[in-house]
Design goal:
mainly alpha, about 75% helix, globular
Length: about 325
């Protein structure tokens, strides 16, 4: 059971960040506008509507805290990391997210109205603290003041890739008009922007820790840079940043639905590997320990998330397919 719950935490965070990223992008659309927002509006709304299901899927983590987090057993008495306070904060995060989801759904539709700047600030604080609670605290000695920003950038990238895949997939075999290609070009440019933001925050954390020679933070990286854990790290760098980065520099790639959908799918796949590399070394510092329960957890959470997402996004997808 312990091994499954460890895998479940990674899978849960992966799918939840897509939902939270959709919520954040919808509120960002309130502030910026633009045709890109209208293009992905159905996908944003579908992603936001998965949040109630994700709130329920948190229950196995809440019940199995003692098997996941090293600070959870009763003999540990941390001021911040203790079970009642942890569960109280988790409840508060979901109250904030669900309230913002209710307020932001118009921003994910045709009418770009919603909580806007205030909502984004509240959302950012909740995602930051949740990321520390649910990811960084798997190693209670680790510290990072930029970790929340890294997770926020990653959530935006995951959500935008999911929305781009949803929009581009039905268009992959049809001849696009000029305005449609322009919209795809906008989607590609924004995916490139999210990719660069995520890479910048990741590199900034590494650079600050390396240049400052900070012992607790260095130990976090050392656990992920040796004994086999460096391999998925290099893979994330190569295929999570460099490959899509250079591909998205080409205008022709960004104006073809099939190419953009393929890139979005690749980004989503590597996003899971990045989260696996972030979380699992805390449980297995001696070496990577891939297990069938990793796949089981990913598919279990993903099936619930996908069912909720496709139920909401299905009508928009079918309408696009009918016009192809």
């Amino acid at each position: 059971m312990t091994r499954f719950l460890q895998a479940y935490l990674t899978a849960y965070v992966y799918w939840l960040l897509i939902s939270l990223g959709c919520l954040g992008i919808a509120m960002m659309r309130t502030l910026t506008g633009g045709r890109w927002g209208k293009a992905i509006a159905p996908a944003l709304a579908a992603g936001i509507r998965t949040l109630p299901a994700m709130a329920l899927l948190f229950l196995p983590i809440a019940v199995g805290l003692g098997r996941i987090f090293p600070w959870a057993p009763a003999e540990h008495r941390w001021f911040y990391l203790n079970v009642p306070f942890f569960l109280g904060r988790a409840a508060l995060y979901f109250i904030v997210w669900l309230w913002l989801a209710w307020k932001a759904l118009p921003a994910a539709g045709d009418d770009p109205a919603g909580p806007g700047g205030f909502g984004l600030v509240l959302w950012s604080f909740a995602v930051t603290f949740a990321s520390v609670d649910w990811m960084l605290s798997t190693d209670p000695q680790a510290h990072s003041t930029i970790f929340g920003l890294i997770v926020i950038a990653g959530a935006g990238l995951s959500a935008y890739a999911a929305c781009t895949l949803t929009i581009c997939w039905p268009l992959r075999e049809r001849e696009l008009t000029g305005p449609e290609r322009d919209v795809l070009n906008d989607l590609g440019n924004l995916m490139l922007a999210f990719l660069m933001l995520w890479a910048y925050t990741e590199f900034s954390q590494w650079l600050i820790i390396w240049s400052g020679d900070l012992p607790n933070e260095i130990s976090w990286y050392l656990a992920r840079a040796r004994r086999g854990w460096e391999i998925p790290g290099y893979f994330v760098i190569a295929f999570g940043f460099f490959a899509p980065f250079f591909a998205l520099l080409f205008r022709d790639v960004k104006r073809r639905a099939a190419a953009l959908a393929t890139l979005a799918a690749c980004v989503l796949a590597v996003r899971w590997l990045d989260l696996y590399w972030t979380i699992m070394p805390s449980f297995f510092p001696q070496a990577p320990s891939p297990d069938w329960r990793d796949l089981l957890a990913f598919v279990s959470v993903g099936a619930v998330w996908s069912a909720s997402y496709l139920r909401a996004a299905g009508p928009a997808i079918r309408s696009r397919e009918k016009t192809s």
